[in-house]
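User: Hi! I'm working on a homework problem where we have to compare a predicted structure to a textbook description. Could you give me the structure for the chain below?
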Amino acid sequence: MKIDRKLPFDLEYKYEKRKIEVQGKVREYMDEVFPRVSTGIGVDSNGRIWVLVMKKEIPKDIDIENFVYQEYFEFEVYNEDGILLTKVPFPGEMERFDNWTMYKDHIFFADPCGQACVYVYKTVWK
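Assistant: Happy to help. Predicted structure tokens:
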């Protein structure tokens, strides 16, 4: 499946020279510098496809201590044909997370930092 959509920010694909040490020798290579537009995909029990997308580009110099996920992330929900059904806000209670997954009608967010919590949300379709 391919989902094409207009993004709320410009994309710039480029490569930068980087250096790496291999067996005591410094070698140069071209590293891709591509902006992130999403951070995971899940399918619910009704076959809807949930994509966690960026609403706007995350600045390189962002202060991680004051980062607010809700400003940058939202879910786009598609049907099995790739047609956008709706957008769902990122949960307001989430202050940080490392990864997320879906199982049936639940979304699980893992937060290994702080108290090592797992947040669980039930998806309700009206």
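For your comparison, note the following. The first helix runs from residue 69 to 72. The CA atoms of residues 55 and 71 lie 7 Å apart. Good luck with the assignment!
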